[in-house]
Design brief:
The structure holds two protein chains of two kinds. Chain A is built from four helices and seven strands. Chain A has helices at residues 14-22, 24-30, 118-126, 133-147; strands spanning 2-10, 38-43, 50-56, 62-73, 77-84, 94-103, 106-116. Chain A is an alpha+beta fold. Chain A has two domains: 2-116, Alpha-D-Glucose-1,6-Bisphosphate, Chain A, domain 4, CATH 3.30.530.20; 117-149, no CATH class. Chain B has a domain at 4-76: Winged helix-like DNA-binding domain superfamily/Winged helix DNA-binding domain (Arc Repressor Mutant, subunit A). Chain B contains five helices and three strands. Chain B has helices at residues 4-15, 18-30, 35-39, 46-58, 78-116; strands spanning 33-34, 62-67, 70-75. In chain B, strands 1-3-2 form a three-stranded antiparallel β-sheet. In chain B, α1 packs across α5 (78-116). The chains are: A alpha+beta, B mainly alpha. The interface between A and B is large, with 50 and 43 residues.
Chain lengths: 149, 117
């Protein structure tokens, strides 16, 4: 199962971080990898409620993602399903989990995006292989890094 | 042209098998080997190795060239790079977004501190 985990220490209390993650006003201020604008942010913050966010990058490309809130425990935990809408990025559904822990100076945020590329995993199982995609990822890294100039 | 996603699926599927990964690792070290050289370390017969090579070639991960009676196999790393790029795109998206989230939340915290005092 391919997954990605990131940890950030933020000098703000968990409730502020949680609201930044879940309110349209908050999302509009940070969502996306560059300073391109958030064009639309909708959140229905309850278990079973949906979110939808569309943003434009500085290169002019627009991207939209949506999903369903699976766990909403303000201010400590948020889990949601994730899907890119209408893009060729990845039509599959994946899982985003965010844990917020109060620490001395503010909040430790642990972010995990998992179940990436389930389709490949599923196929490999069907063909009788062990879907060891984590190992695979390391293998990619080794080869690609050694091959890079 | 094979679409991007099909290519990714093929790359991932081809790489899930340990024998094929071992073949690629070896090609990465040696920059070209004959089919019989590649088959030697494995406890499987030559036709089975040929099948693995077919899968790798279909995924674009290797190229084969024939000179006389010898087929030389070489690594073609581009599909792997694409698969890595695909994973790294997620990492990049979230890493940069979370940095921005942190800056925003820290600004909010500072605002609240000012109001409170």
């Amino acid at each position: 199962m391919t997954s990605l985990t990131l940890v950030r220490r933020i000098k703000a209390r968990p409730s502020i971080v949680f609201d930044a993650l879940t309110t349209p006003e908050g999302i509009a201020c940070w969502w996306g990898p560059d300073d391109g604008p958030v064009l639309l942010a909708e959140t229905e913050l309850r278990v079973g409620g949906r979110f939808r966010v569309r943003f434009r990058m500085l290169d002019g490309s627009e991207h939209e993602s949506s999903g369903e809130y699976l766990q909403v425990e303000r201010p400590n935990r948020l889990a949601m399903s994730w899907r890119w809408v209408g893009g060729e990025e990845d039509p599959g559904e994946s899982l985003v989990e965010i844990d917020l822990r109060a620490i001395g100076e503010g909040t430790e945020l642990t972010f995990t995006h998992s179940r990436l590329h389930d389709e490949a995993t599923r196929r490999s199982h069907e063909e009788g292989w062990n879907g060891a995609l984590d190992k695979l990822e390391r293998h990619f890294l080794e080869i690609v890094e050694r091959k890079s100039p | 042209m094979v679409n991007y996603r099909e290519q990714l699926d093929r790359t991932f599927a081809a790489l899930v098998d340990p024998t094929r990964r071992a073949i690629l690792t070896r090609l990465e070290r040696e920059d070209g080997a004959s089919v019989s050289e590649l088959a030697r370390p494995f406890a499987i017969k030559l036709p089975a190795v040929m099948k693995h090579l077919d899968v790798l070639a279909d995924a674009g991960l290797i190229t084969r060239s024939k000179l006389g009676r010898t087929v030389t196999v070489r690594l073609s790393p581009e599909p792997m790079r694409e698969a890595m790029d695909w994973l790294r795109r997620y990492e990049r998206f979230w890493s940069l977004s979370l940095d921005r989230l942190a800056a925003y939340a820290e600004g909010k915290e500072a605002e609240m501190g000012e109001k409170g005092s």
